[in-house]
Amino acid sequence: MNGPKVGIIMGSDSDLNVMREAAKVLEEFGVPYEITIVSAHRTPERMYEYAKSARERGIEVIIAGAGGAAHLPGMTASLTTLPVIGVPVKGSSLDGLDSLLSIVQMPRGVPVATVAINNAQNAGLLAVRILSIKYPELAEKLERYRQEMYEKVLEKAKEVEEGFGKIGG
Predict the structure, then answer these.
(1) DSSP state letters, 12-50
(2) Alpha carbon of 103 to those of 12, 37, 56, 68: distances in Å?
(3) How far apart are CA 30 and CA 16, in angstroms?
(4) Does the annotation flag 92 for ligand binding?
């Protein structure tokens, strides 16, 4: 994979702590990405240019995080045919519910995949899954990731069972 395949954008630097988790996942899977601030309200021209030029720059998936009114994912999706994954970022007043509802309630014809509040990790994983359709090496890495999760759950189950006795008995 040459050049960034995923664009991670956010409305403000205050979203960086959340959006950093998507970047970590992409790094874990070896997916090149770019990350920047693009505000739908404060820099609408920048948002427009970012979304309109993403495909020609080699971006294949966009992860857009936003809090409050959270227009960035939807407005970005309205300007491109690339898949857009919205990450509702928990704000200070409504615990992120305002962002979640803003992102998930897109009008027909302008889809935005939406993950849970502050769950940029799942946004990163969803981007990897989307890319795995085109890049088989990512599908293999995802399968290993799933197996590792499976084994971790079994280890935890064993610890619980040994600490409290077998389940049901």
Answers:
(1) SGGGHHHHHHHHHHHHHHT--EEEEE--TTT-HHHHHHH
(2) 16, 18, 25, 10
(3) 20
(4) no
Strand, coil or helix: 101: helix
* Residue with tokens 């509702």, as numbered in its chain: 88
Structure tokens belonging to residue 151: 């084994």
Q: pLDDT for 22-76, tens place per residue?
A: 999 999 999 999 999 999 999 999 999 999 999 999 999 999 999 988 999 999 9
Token look-up 């197996």 returns 147
Is 15 annotated as a binding-site member?
yes
Q: Please report, for residues 25, 98, 118, 156, 167, the alpha-carbon distance to residue 56 in angstroms, rounded to integers and kept in the order given.
A: 24, 33, 29, 46, 55
